[in-house]
Amino acid sequence: PARPLPTHAPMTQFAAADGQLLIGGLPLEHLAARVGHTPCYADDRALLTGRVGELRAALPAAVKLHYAMKANPMPAVVGLLAGLVDGIDVASAGELKIALDAGADPHEISFAGPGKRDGELRQAVAAGVLVNLESFREVGVLAAVSAELDMPARVAVRVNPDFELKGSGMKMGGGAKQFGVDAEEVPRLLADIGAAGLQFEGFHLFAGSQNLKAEAICEAQQKSWALARRLADCAPAPIRFLNLGGGFGIPYFPGEQRLDLAPISANLAELAARTATEMPATELVIELGRYFVGEAGVYVTRVIDRKISRGQVFLVVDGGLNHHLSASGNFGQVIRKNYPVAIGNRMEATGRETERESASVVGPLCTPLDVLAERMDLPAAQPGDLVVIFQSGAYGASASPQAFLGHPAVVEVLV
Ligand SMILES: *Cc1c(COP(=O)(O)O)cnc(C)c1O
Asked: Which CATH superfamily is domain 112-288 in?
């Protein structure tokens, strides 16, 4: 018997009414009129708020939630999340500015990244945020800046662990990496930090990203905790923060299912209990990017042309990889797969017969890489219709080459 083809996880986070997808409660055509421009990204405020609430309800209360804002640095989104989560993780002085403007508490901002410039480190110390040290060089710069500003730099050590996160979309720890300091070098770095008089506050471990396997995430958390526990014996001060990383994935492609939080919650509860007895001054932190924002956002483009080439339907839309590199398959994917896609003004309505067809959605750029959907089963669409790419709230506009081919910039709204 033929096995059924894998399908996308249902995008039930968005309702539809009268054939229109609802974003922030607004019918899509109405929203497009309000924005006044396609293409646009729209993030749903209620879904963002709901996601934080669901995580808080699912995970132990002792675990602090940080938002890794590189996933979606739109100021309105960061402003909303800053009021909901426990801290913001930034990776440049530019992101630091957005987080501070959003009203995030500097004590709960941490700054990571492999190539922090001297000027960025100076800004971080002046702002009073925690710097996740990623090299021996940064100790010297921070010591000089601390003396100059008469403010001791708050530092944690980002550890490149001696293990990898299994089944991760992007590995960012283990083996030889540009991120963090190799675990075996950390005792020497801790001695330097003590000698330089920096204010040591904890460890940061981030093994990888986009993981849908709860067991793999639990295993990485266990190993990270054990490594930090060992390294704590060499630390110049008690550990106040232990950032165990994140890596929680969301379903993008056919056959992928939503992450099961229950085993992760049980695992974190066990680690929180051990922390309370063995490292009582320590707060456990997890940092998530796409898990907070990815499912709450859509990318909306309008069909400019409908072409048929040798029997295949192409819907040519007004934006593509210039705004949404991830959905085109060119942001880390090895094999191109389709994001979930809908014709947002032709959503299935009960009792209405919708003609369906196999169609490819391509952008207006003169490159064969500019593909948003390849041979998908979609309601038959015409010029003027709105194509929606789901799971687009993370790694969208800010992760895309907007200047490529000189098309208009995308508009981003929080609804
Ligand atoms: C990118 C990054 C994140 C966020 O990753 P997501 O997959 O979006 O959750 C978290 N921490 C660090 C250190 C990162 O570099």
From this structure: Alanine racemase (3.20.20.10)
